[in-house]
Amino acid sequence: AQSVAQPEDQVNVAEGNPLTVKCTYSVSGNPYLFWYVQYPNRGLQFLLKYITGDNLVKGSYGFEAEFNKSQTSFHLKKPSALVSDSALYFCAVRPTSGGSYIPTFGRGTSLIVHP
Amino acid sequence: DTAVSQTPKYLVTQMGNDKSIKCEQNLGHDTMYWYKQDSKKFLKIMFSYNNKELIINETVPNRFSPKSPDKAHLNLHINSLELGDSAVYFCASSPLRRGYEQYFGPGTRLTVT
Question: Which of A47, A102, B59, B77 has the fewest CB atoms within 10 Å, i.e. is most exposed?
Fold first, then answer.
């Protein structure tokens, strides 16, 4: 069975500082990995994904994520946080084959960026 | 144009009633989903549907049922509503191929009194 862990319920960072939101996964075989963001009273929006190739993927709003196969991690990063980045972030995984094609989501991490 | 739309945005109803939430996507995707987000913001998959199969999360009560009149629509019917059904329900769509991301609707906040 596939699973995703987001070990931090909340991450606090000062505006202008770098941010990291952690995600580890478990899946049979190779993964497809996704990050989504949810602003208050909105649906989830896709940020970025890892399919294959370069381990560092870049996405919307200046976010990037690094795929680390040995550590089964896919941490979300941004070099300089903005107050407007404050939101709920979800990591999700799908196996590239076998298992369920339905993605498994983590429990979400609330990012709070302080002015 | 809105990619995935849901109606209504808010739904307040009494216990025991039957209600429906509509979802439409104009992305040409062949797979649609329903999720429930509880008060702690946890996302739970309820259903996944494409033209080949319906996958039901076994924990979902059979009071909930998806209905797909065509490829662009997946409506959610709920019978005999209970207080615990209060949540935000999200519709989503994606191509069936696994490397593609999902597109989510804006959500329907259901309150059962």
Answer: B59
Token pair for A77: 């990063």
> Residue A13 belongs to what domain range?
3-114
Q: How many Å is the Cα radius of gyration of chain A?
A: 14
pLDDT in tens, chain A (115 residues): 889 999 999 999 999 999 999 999 999 888 999 999 999 999 999 999 999 989 999 999 999 999 999 999 999 999 999 999 999 999 999 988 887 788 999 999 999 999 9
Identify the domain containing residue B14 by its residue range: 4-112
Q: Which residue in the block uniquely carries the two structure tokens 């025991």?
A: B16
Question: What residues in A contact B92, CB-CB < 8 Å?
Answer: 43-44
CA distance A48 to B106: 19
- CATH code where residue B82 lies: 2.60.40.10
Overall domain count for chain B: 1
Q: Smallest Cβ distance to B96: which of A45, A88, A101? A: A101
In chain B, which residue's Cα lies nearest the Cα of A91?
B43
